[in-house]
């Protein structure tokens, strides 16, 4: 037992372990580490009786939770029952008075005990009913609150995948809990809420008063609502939905719950609660529950009449709120109500709405509410998407409405789309006049959601809505034309630009999303042309605006930037509908009517070609004007790449004089964005996109040399520098980084043998030495080396078999020798560079890329590596030795902490052991064993791709050992000498493989089986020992279980011989699947 002195010390250490002082925290962790041992379990239990310190109580509860989870089988059934009963009594006595964070941990422990023992002990399955019987009491609200919290914690645990149970076991427990207990818990929450409602109604007061009874009811109501939410959010089918999503999927309520939705007053209960409760937080929770209730699966209802009655109750409830606006003065409640409006249409069809008695009134009230919400600028930004989503879903259902029913949507939808647009223009005015107002244009996700919904409303009656848009657009555009040619106050100019931004976004969304409308295709295209003409007139005004307002810093003018983003959005949308592969009209014999209208309004001839010329010109202009605004450069490059990636749009673009100018004049003197350090990634994208356009048409080597000529000046300057001190200058560094980024874009764009050969012939003999000099001088500069190594990684990548030289050509070998020289020079110097602050950026990133480069070279199949050993060339051994030592210098924990580094390391291991095992085994024993140790630890990685790579590496290694050992070759002797230094290595690996197969959810059994058979063949005696150990561990002293596990092992090796023939391997793989199922059934 623990003395009073020890207890005081324990409490002090617990306060320190959760304190702010790091040194005290580490010391407390060290001293309290002993409490992780099972023998200290009684001391932890004693803490609850002896201590009132919340930190001590929390520590004890958390440690017991870990013990129970990790050592479940070490606790007897009696001890588990005693612990559960003790915790329930403790919570009943002190559950309300102890701090929330302590009670939460205790509740979690009760839930964990219940879940882990659910299938083992009937008392656990009876627990929810016992809680209801002894805790939920109308006369004792505080005890009822504790009982509801216990039930909630059990649901949360049942709905959470714990490390103790596999996915299959978790689902088995969760399904049993769902079928046996969940409905009863849900009914308990409903009964509690009914009691609260009766109590409130009897008082004749709202719950927000200060009366003690009201406060108690408020607390009880909150817990009951939270329990109801947990019941409805339960993962009924075991698919683990994405909880981060705002949207709610269909809730798969079990059929046994049908009476609660069809025959009871469940919906009326929640609408009555909403109208009775005075606490906004509780009203919001009620609406959250209603959102879930309206999301129940359609097949839950007996028939159409029951589903109609259910929907009618929702319509009546929402109509009541819309009439009185009760509770909607609270922003959170308002947002949740908007969410309910959107959700109700997601789960019910328009045919079901129109037959409801209150549909017309609900539609009218919803339309009024929607229009008023658009005008409530301070609130609508978060909720406008839900309102638009409601109407877009209603509109989308209109074509499927039965002829005998009337939807009345044509009465409201055009006005709603008009009021939405007007509200955005009013928002623009407000943002321009008041900097403190939050601009919705700053929130791209919300903006995209709105732009996804509004086109369907406008297309519903495109003639009317299109006319509205034109009437709103024309006066603003005219004022902007006058403004850019005459100096007006900058605030007025910004207001016009923000209005034009919204109008451009809306027009772009309408052009890009072509829904069925009341107009014919030709009429819709003509209207598209009418609206697009306004945008095309706007594009050249930007340059005039920048020129005439040169006294202002346009680069910092957010309104102008937003306008540029909207123009780019419009051009992408236009390209998608009328210039791209997916456009319905491109390639047809008839000319889309949009180009006819553009010719009438703007005198634009040449159809697609002329419009595309405007777009390419705008792209070129942006890359000049907005060179220092990386966001605009990024979006502009996205549009450029979008055009170049589509076959038809790229084919059209390649015919333009503007494109030809770009291909011949792409240097930084013409495009200053190339000189900005923030645009390094866009430099690569720029040249990759240019190559797509260059290589699209019939091109020659002369065309390529003309294209790359602007890069020759900087290449020649870098090549001419022989003095390392000169090479270290800042200007040279920046030029080198940009040069590598540019060349990387070009080499990425070389996708076939012909284009790659053009680049190789230009680059390799004349300029590849620049990379060697840079690696020697700038090895300690992460910015230079990252750019250089990434270029080299793409240069040696043999995608599409593009690196293919004639049989008499030495170029493949020369590429590897040059790569080996660069990596060796860099790696040998990097080993001595100390880490100053960020290990990954300063060192690990370069090592990661080096491993990728080496992997790509070894797997490229353009170099015969046997040549190096034959002619005593050290290039292969040097680069292997350098890169592997760099990789092994990184602690294993660090490798696992960085996904890219982890993938590079194990990718290299797989490649090395596939073709170069005889080289790897020549390393010193400590290095070789360190590699094997990392492979052993990596087998259990959750990433199946990586785990399979590691299994392949081990399979190749031990298969090599097996084949060489049969011949008693020097390689076999050398490998045996390595393994003798760690005789437990193979046994440990085989044990780990069996542990994974039996206990874990492994999706790569095929890969595991190949390696397991090799390990069994190499060490049959240990396999027999391991088999007996597994039988004892799994079956214990139960004779029946022992027999079943032994039979599973017999079946595992049935028909399997001690060799590694393909047929034998396949037989073992099939047996292993059966073995896993049999043993897990015993477990």
UniProtKB/TrEMBL annotation:
GO terms for molecular function: nuclear export signal receptor activity; small GTPase binding. Residues 28-93 form the Importin N-terminal domain. PROSITE patterns: IMPORTIN_B_NT. It comes from the Eukaryota. GO terms for cellular component: cytoplasm; nuclear pore. The keyword Metal-binding does not apply. Its main location: cytoplasm. Gene3D superfamilies: Leucine-rich Repeat Variant (1.25.10.10). Keywords: Cytoplasm, Nucleus, Protein transport, Transport. It holds the Pfam family IBN_N. GO terms for biological process: protein export from nucleus. Signal peptide: none annotated. It is found in: Cytoplasm; Nucleus. Belongs to the exportin family. This is Importin N-terminal domain-containing protein. It comes from Naegleria fowleri.
């Amino acid at each position: 037992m623990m003395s009073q002195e020890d207890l005081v010390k324990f409490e002090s250490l617990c306060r320190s372990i959760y304190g702010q002082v790091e040194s005290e925290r580490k010391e407390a962790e060290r001293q309290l580490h002993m409490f992780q041992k099972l023998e200290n379990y009684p001391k932890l239990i004693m803490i609850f009786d002896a201590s009132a310190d919340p930190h001590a109580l929390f520590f004890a509860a958390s440690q017991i939770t870990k013990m129970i989870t990790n050592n479940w089988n070490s606790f007897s059934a009696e001890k588990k029952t005693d612990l559960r009963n003790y915790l329930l009594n403790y919570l009943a006595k002190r559950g309300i008075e102890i701090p929330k964070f302590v009670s939460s941990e205790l509740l979690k422990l009760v839930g964990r005990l219940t879940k882990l023992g659910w299938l083992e002990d009937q008392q656990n399955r009876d627990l929810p009913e016992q809680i209801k019987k002894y805790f939920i009491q109308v006369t004792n609200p505080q005890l009822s609150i504790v009982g509801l919290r216990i039930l909630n914690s059990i649901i949360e645990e049942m709905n959470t995948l714990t490390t103790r149970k596999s996915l299959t076991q978790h689902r088995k427990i969760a399904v049993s809990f769902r079928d046996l207990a969940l409905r009863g818990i849900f009914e308990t929450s409903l009964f509690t809420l009914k009691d609260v409602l009766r109590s409130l109604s009897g008082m004749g007061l709202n719950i927000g008063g200060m009366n003690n009874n009201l406060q108690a009811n408020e607390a009880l109501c909150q817990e009951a609502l939270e329990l109801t939410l947990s019941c409805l959010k339960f993962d009924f089918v075991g698919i683990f939905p994405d909880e981060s999503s705002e949207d709610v999927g269909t809730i798969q309520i079990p059929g046994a719950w049908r009476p609660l939705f069809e025959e009871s007053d469940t919906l009326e209960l929640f609408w009555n609660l909403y109208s009775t409760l005075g606490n906004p937080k509780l009203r919001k929770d009620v609406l959250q529950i209603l959102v879930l209730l309206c999301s129940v699966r359609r097949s839950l209802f007996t028939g159409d009449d029951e589903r109609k009655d259910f929907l009618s109750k929702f319509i009546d409830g929402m109509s009541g709120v819309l009439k009185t606006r009760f509770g909607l003065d609270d922003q959170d409640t308002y947002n949740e109500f908007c969410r309910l409006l959107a959700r109700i249409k997601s789960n019910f069809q328009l045919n079901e709405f129109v037959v409801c008695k209150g549909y017309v009134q609900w539609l009218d009230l919803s339309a009024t509410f929607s229009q008023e919400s658009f005008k409530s600028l301070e609130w609508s930004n978060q909720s406008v998407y839900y309102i638009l989503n409601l109407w877009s879903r209603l509109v989308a259902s209109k074509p499927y409405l039965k002829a005998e029913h009337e939807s009345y949507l044509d009465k409201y939808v055009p006005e709603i789309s008009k009021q939405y647009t007007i509200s955005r223009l009013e928002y623009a005015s407000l943002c321009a006049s008041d900097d403190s107002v939050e601009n919705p244009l700053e929130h791209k996700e919300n903006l995209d959601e709105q732009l996804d919904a509004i086109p369907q409303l406008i297309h519903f009656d495109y003639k009317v809505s299109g006319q509205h848009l034109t009437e709103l657009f024309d006066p603003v555009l005219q004022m902007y034309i006058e403004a850019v040619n005459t100096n007006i106050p900058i605030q007025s100019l910004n207001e016009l630009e923000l209005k034009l931004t919204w109008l451009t976004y809306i027009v772009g969304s309408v052009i890009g999303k072509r829904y069925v409308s009341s107009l014919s295709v030709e009429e819709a295209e003509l209207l598209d042309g009418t609206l697009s003409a306004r945008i095309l007139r706007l594009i050249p005004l930007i340059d005039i605006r920048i020129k005439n307002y040169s006294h202002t810093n346009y680069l910092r003018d957010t309104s102008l930037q937003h306008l540029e983003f909207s123009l780019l959005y419009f051009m992408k949308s236009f390209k998608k509908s009328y210039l791209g592969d997916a456009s319905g009209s491109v390639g047809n014999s008839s000319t889309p009517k949009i180009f006819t209208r553009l010719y009438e309004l703007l005198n634009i001839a040449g159809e697609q070609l002329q419009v595309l010329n405007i777009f390419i010109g705008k792209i070129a202009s942006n890359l000049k004007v907005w060179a220092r605004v990386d966001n605009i450069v990024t979006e502009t490059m996205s549009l450029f790449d979008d055009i170049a990636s589509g076959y038809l749009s790229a084919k059209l673009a390649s015919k333009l004089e503007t494109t030809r100018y770009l291909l011949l004049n792409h240097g930084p003197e013409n495009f200053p964005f190339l000189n900005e350090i923030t645009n390094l990634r866009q430099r690569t994208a720029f040249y990759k996109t240019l190559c797509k356009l260059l290589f699209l048409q019939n091109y020659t080597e002369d065309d390529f040399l003309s294209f790359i000529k602007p890069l020759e000046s900087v290449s020649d300057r870098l090549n001419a520098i022989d003095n390392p001190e000169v090479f270290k200058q800042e200007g040279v560094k920046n030029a080198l980084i940009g040069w590598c980024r540019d060349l990387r874009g070009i080499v990425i764009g070389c996708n076939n043998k012909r284009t790659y050969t053009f680049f190789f012939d230009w680059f390799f003999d004349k300029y590849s030495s620049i990379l060697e000099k840079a690696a020697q001088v700038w090895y300690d500069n992460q910015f230079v080396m990252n750019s250089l190594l990434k270029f080299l990684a793409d240069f040696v990548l043999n995608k599409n078999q593009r690196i293919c030289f004639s049989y008499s050509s030495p170029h493949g070998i020369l590429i590897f020798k040059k790569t080996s020289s660069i990596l060796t020079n860099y790696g040998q110097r990097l080993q001595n560079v100390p880490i100053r602050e960020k290990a990954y950026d300063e060192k690990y990133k370069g090592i990661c890329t080096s491993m990728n480069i080496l992997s790509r070279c070894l797997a490229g199949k353009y170099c015969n590596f046997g040549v190096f050993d034959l002619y005593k060339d050290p290039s292969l051994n040097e680069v292997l030795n350098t890169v592997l030592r760099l990789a092994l210098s990184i602690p294993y924990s660090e490798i696992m902490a960085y996904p890219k580094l982890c993938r590079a390391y194990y990718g290299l291991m797989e490649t090395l052991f596939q073709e170069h095992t005889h080289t790897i085994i020549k390393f010193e024993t400590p290095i070789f064993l360190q590699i094997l140790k990392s492979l052993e630890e990596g087998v259990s990685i959750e990433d199946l791709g990586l785990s399979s790579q590691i299994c392949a590496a081990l399979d190749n290694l031990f298969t090599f050992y097996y084949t060489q050992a049969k011949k008693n070759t020097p390689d076999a002797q050398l490998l045996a000498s390595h393994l003798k230094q760690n005789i437990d290595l193979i046994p440990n690996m085989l044990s780990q493989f069996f542990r994974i197969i039996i206990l874990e959810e492994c999706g790569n059994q095929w890969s595991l089986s190949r390696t397991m058979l090799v390990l069994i063949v190499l060490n049959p005696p240990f396999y027999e020992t391991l088999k007996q150990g597994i039988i004892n561990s799994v079956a214990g002293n139960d004779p029946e279980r022992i027999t079943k596990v032994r039979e599973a092992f017999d079946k595992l090796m049935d028909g399997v011989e001690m060799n590694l023939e393909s047929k034998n391997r396949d037989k073992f793989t099939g047996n292993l699947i059966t073995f896993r199922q049999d043993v897990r059934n015993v477990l």
